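Sample intake — SsrA-binding protein
Collected from: Amycolatopsis marina
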Amino acid sequence: MPKEIGRKVIVSNRKARHDYSILDTYEAGLVLVGTEVKSLRAGKASLVDAFATVDDGEVWLRNVHIPEYTHGTWTNHEARRHRKLLLHRGEIERLIGKTKESGLSLVPLSMYFKDGKVKVEIALARGKKAYDKRQDIAKRDARKEVERAMGRAVKGKYGR
């Protein structure tokens, strides 16, 4: 059976980039059972309200919803169980030190298949305040308006 090459995104957490300032990202493996992988291959998962914690030197992913596999039997998995993340010891030590700082948390950004294995991209992030979110929206709107004006100027000069 040939292995899949490349990266196939299953689900991404678009709201995380809006609610948090991303400081650093990590790629981690995931400890899953068979029916979870089958459900993920069907493209079903949700990272809404998901977060990661460091407990006793291990990193755990919590509140990720992977629905039960439809063709599963009594051995089907629990939809919102805690899942262990696989990281190098040095990365875990770094995360322990950083999360002890005030206001930093671990947020999953995306879940994807990489070379046939399920990976999750987690970010060390700081929560944004409401005014930070408004500033980001204002910057984005201003950039879009400049791009529109440049497009109109180019079309006005060269469009005829």
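Post-analysis note: The chain has two domains: 7-128, 129-160.
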